[in-house]
Each structure stands twice: as C-alpha cells, then as structure tokens.
Amino acid sequence: MSVHRNVKRVTTHVLQEMKDSGEKITMLTGYDFSMARIIDTAGIDVILVGDSASNVMAGHETTLPITLDQMIYHASSVVRAVDRALVVVDLPFGSYQGNSKEALSSAIRIMKESGGHAVKMEGGREILESVSRILTAGIPVMGHLGLTPQSIYKFGTYVVRAKEEEEAARLIEDAKALEEVGCFAIVLEKIPAKLAARVAKEVNIPIIGIGAGNGVDGQVLVVHDMLGINNEFNPRFLRKYHNLYQEMLGSFHRYIEDVKSGDFPNEEESY
Questions:
Q1: Peptide bond into 140 cis (omega under 30)
Q2: Catalytic annotation on 122?
Q3: Chain centroid to CA 148: how far?
Q4: What is the DSSP string of the chain?
Q5: Contact 73, 81 (CB under 8 A)
Q6: pLDDT single digits (tens) 148-195
Q7: 109 exposed, middle or buried (CB, 10 Å; 0-12, 13-18, 19+)?
Q8: Stated pTM of the model
Q9: Domains parsed from the chain with CATH numbers
Q10: Closest by alpha carbon to 87, among 131, 127, 28?
Q11: How far apart are CA 200 and CA 208, in angstroms?
C-alpha cells in the first residue's frame, strides 16, 4: 500500500451514506494489480472482483468454471493495488450453493487469503441461510438478483429477467429478504428499469444496477467492456467509453513494423 496517498477509504457505511444523501455509487470490475491501480486512482467507489474473470481473463463461455482459488488469486492482486475503493469479491459457483457451512468457509478463505473487504453472492431466498451464516463471522455480503449468470443453465438464456409480474413480485420479496438478513447492498442485473427503480425505493440499502436503468443508487460495468477491449460484446446496456481494441491493435502493428524494419530499438534506446 502506498503511504503518500492520504485517502479516505470507502466502506459499506460510506455507501449507505451515499444512498441516503442521493449520491450515486460507481462500481467497476477489476481482476489484476495494474488495472485496479488505475481504477482506484480514478476514484471509483467499489471494485468488484467479479467471477466474470472466468469470461474476460480466462476465455470461458460462462462464469461457472472459475474456482475459489482462482478468485482468491485475482482478489489478492486487486487488493494490493487499492488505497480507497471497497473491494467486493464474488463467491464463485459451487462455493456456497446449498451448503451454508461451505459458504462460510469459502467466504472466510476469501477474506483471509485475499484481504478483500466483502463478498458477493447470487440468489434470493435460497441463499438466505448461507448469507446469515457468513454475516455471523462479521463478513459483509452484497446480494445479486435479476439475471444471475451462475444460473445460466437454469434460465437457458441471458435475456432480461423479471418481465412477468410473478417473477417481478418474487424479485422484490427477495430484495427485501436480503436486506432483512443483513446484506449491505444488492446488484440488480438486466431487469426492467421501472422494477429496478421500485426496488431502490422500497429497500433501504444501496441498489447497484447493470442493465437496470437509471432509477437505482449506482452502476456497475465490466471494465473490459466499457473500455472496448472486449470487441465482440455489445449489449444494449453497455456504454463504451473507449475503443481500446483498435488502439491496442494499432500499437501492436506499429511495434511489429518497427522491429521487422530494424527501426526499434534505435540508438537512444540502446545501451
């Protein structure tokens, strides 16, 4: 940790104050030291060490293959870079579902071995026992409802969730249950904007959206998507702030040319 940067750390308490005062919360994913350093220096409030690392870092089709050990590796890389942001780490698929004892030991491993500040878990009523068990150990938990990518094979598709009234009502109940059990915030993914705004109003804890409209308390995007590094992914909810794919490609092309032509390294770049 650098000593020269005297910055106030973002905590779960700070996020609650932000919601209460109407200040929007910013969140991006981070998986490695160098990128997390830049994200933190920029002043992003929350860095999510997402199991999306399975897709963007490892090239898997879904988030399911990533292991607890791999998540700890990514999380500890991020934690070493961060002075200010709250670092939230995804509990990966298979490390908490259906077994609250295993959920607790997974969460403890993440906190002890990575130094992360909180964990995130997908699901509603079916994970309440696991959430409350993790909370008894003093580990903050962020919830995740709507499109829950770890359940992709159950849904069979990445379409918008909770369009039907029954599913919408269930989502609101789940959000309230997660708040009641003690979650400090909830991510809502790919649900109708009206429904997300309603959840943010009816629930007192911060609601962070991804593809959930503007009526929530904050936003999260995958950093590789918003920077345009990931060229093939263009969902409606994504705003690309850069086209790094083309920029990087151009740099690599120029490097190849300079090496092949003998232009690099030149005299000044040699000893």
A1: no
A2: no
A3: 12
A4: --SS---PPP-HHHHHHHHHHTPPEEEEE--SHHHHHHHHHHT-SEEEE-TTHHHHTT--SSSTT--HHHHHHHHHHHHTT-SSSEEEEEPPTTSSTT-HHHHHHHHHHHHHHH--SEEEEEBSGGGHHHHHHHHHTT--EEEEEES-GGGHHHH-S-PPP--SHHHHHHHHHHHHHHHHHT-SEEEEES--HHHHHHHHHH-SS-EEEESS-SSSSEEEE-HHHHTT-STT---TTPPPS--HHHHHHHHHHHHHHHHHTT-SS-GGG--
A5: no
A6: 888 888 877 777 887 788 889 999 999 999 999 999 999 999 999 999
A7: middle
A8: 0.95
A9: 12-240 (3.20.20.60), 243-271 (no CATH)
A10: 28
A11: 9
CA–CA distances in Å: residue 189 to residues 44, 54, 263, 268: 19, 18, 49, 52
**Contact predicate 28/187, CB 8 Å:** no
Structure tokens at 215: 């009526």
What separation in angstroms does the CA of 100 have from each of 1, 110, 149, 200, 242?
34, 15, 20, 28, 42
Indicate the Cα dihedral angle 157, 103, 130, 50, nearest 10°. -40
pLDDT in tens, 97-115: 989 999 999 999 999 999 9
CA distance 230 to 224: 6
Range 203-222 burial, b when 16+ CB lie within 10 A, else e = bebbbbbbbbbebbbbbbbb
Q: How confident is the model at residue 3 (pLDDT cuts 50, 70, 90)?
A: very low
Choose the catalytic residue: 113, 167, 189, 269: 189
Give pLDDT tens digits for 193-237: 999 999 999 999 999 999 999 999 999 999 999 999 998 888 999
